[in-house]
Design goal:
- The protein has 392 residues and is an all-beta fold.
- It is 3% helix and 31% strand.
- It has one helix at residues 17-26; strands spanning 33-37, 42-44, 60-62, 68-72, 80-82, 90-92, 99-107, 110-112, 123-125, 128-137, 140-142, 158-160, 163-167, 170-172, 182-184, 191-194, 197-199, 202-203, 209-211, 215-218, 221-223, 226-227, 234-236, 239-243, 246-248, 259-261, 264-268, 271-273, 281-283, 287-289, 294-295, 302-303, 320-321, 332-333.
- The strands form 5 sheets. The chain has a 19-stranded parallel β-sheet that branches.
- The longest helix is centred in the N-terminal third of the chain and has 10 residues, at 17-26.
Amino acid sequence: PDGICDVDPGPEVRCTLRAAISTANAYFGESDLIYIHLPPGVYVLNLPAPAPDSNAGGDLDFDNLEKAILLEGDPATFPVIHANGLDRVITNYSSISGLELRYLTLSGGVVNNESSVPTGGGILNFGTLTLDSVTVENNQVLCLPSAADCDPMIGGGIANYETLKIYNSAIRNNVASRGGGIFNIGGSDALEISNTTIHGNLANTGAAITSYGPLQIVNSTISGNLGQAGVGGIDNHNMLSLANVTLAENLSPGGAVNLSNYHTVLMRNSIISNSQGRQNCACTNMVTSQGYNLASDAMPGLTPALHDQVNVNPLLSPLGDHGGLVPGMLTLTHALTIGSPAVDAANPAGCMNFQGYALSYDQRGQPRPLHGCDIGAFELTEFAVFLPLIRR
């Protein structure tokens, strides 16, 4: 509780990451912010969990209920916290001011149906959590043969039960039975995702996201996720809002590939597309267009609005590295190719989020014009070429 982190009695002050978090959890002094800086490197968890939900071993547990905690890595190198298959990487109980993670990679988390809490392979959130420039990758929630039912094995990358905001991040290559990337139950606040790519995740259904809580996605790409039995993209059961989202090229061997909807979807200036000739949306409830969307099929679940384009190929490039907002962080997007019908085809009044603010930049940090911006997460920037003038 003195705010001093020193793990041995020797003359040299030595603080491990786990000890720093334990010190942060115990601190109730004058400062409102507890700051933990993580230098470059790979930090491998190697202490087995002595008991559930204890920072003494297993995953890293944050449980200061009064102070804000910022765990920040090096923005040039993105330190890796690797759970080593012992447990998930992080459990967060911090509330009120909450926990923020920045410039980090969280990897190697594994939980299964015999774990004390069999959800959230990378992150399990019961508090207030913000991810800013964080990669959550290669985490798993496994269903062992001892399980009578695999459906509870949820949230390969993240299982969210309270308040979560994700900015400028990547959720990729995670595995669960449902919600391979993210499983969202959530509290009263909507899960907010902005400038983020969710790709390469695997689940039976809802491989990118399974959501039973309010969810808002802006300026983001959801692509290349595989639902082995159901939808590869988003499996939605609550209020879902999409603004300048590219929801494309998700995979499923049967049924719709990009979206299944059982509640309410509001969609504006967004692309929903696949090149396999498969149905984009299994829409038990209708998707309400707020205009200027582009779909590669007829979108029979879409309530059309003015200037929607349906049965139109958006002419997307393959998912690739086309630059990013955060230096040192791999950002994958679908570029709009020359001649794409999405170019300059969004709302001429401007691309807006759901709070009424202009989206001045695309997912990669490229500027959007105030008028005549592009549909989806990617803004095609064409540079003028000036040739020399020769006079005789």
